[in-house]
Write a structure and sequence with these properties.
single chain; about 200 residues; Four Helix Bundle (Hemerythrin (Met), subunit A); 9 helices; globular
Length: about 200
Amino acid sequence: MINKEIFTIPNLITLYRLLVFPLILYFAIAGKEALFTIFLVISLLSDALDGFIARLLKSETEIGARLDSFADNLNYLLVFTGIFVFKLEDFIPHKVSLLIFIGILMFTVILSLIKFGKFPSFHLYITKVGGYVQGAFFICLFTIGFIEPFYYLVIIWGILGAVEHIIIQMMIPEMRSNVKGLYWIFKEKKAVRNKSL
């Protein structure tokens, strides 16, 4: 039973992202931009693929959600390392918005670790869509170049998603995976209140 839950196609794709992380990080630190870009793009595309396959095959699992969230955090680390090493000049005029974005993302993780002792794995609808938008932006950044309107779309969307994430963390008593969003949390709370009346 445990093996069936762990060794699913989406989880194996996520495992690839975890295993390839040190190699991509090495390419960034070594200044090998072409190799960094190729492997980062594959990793970002596989992130979209594992979620799509999990929904298609109805094989979404708790362990898969947690692995995926952890791999997402590693992808963010790779992207920001790549920005620092290869694309810093593009971001200097936008450093305040970038720092706010990074800060609020880090806060969602820190808050979860403090409150629940675990990495967050909500997979909110807003952050799922935001993940695709961010992935597309990062692929463009490392292949085509910096596109300012696209950048600000990513920042605004990311901050809105992080705010929703933080509000949900403050509202729920224990960490859960695959939470749809704030609307569904309010709906659940209303159903519980109505039941107790």
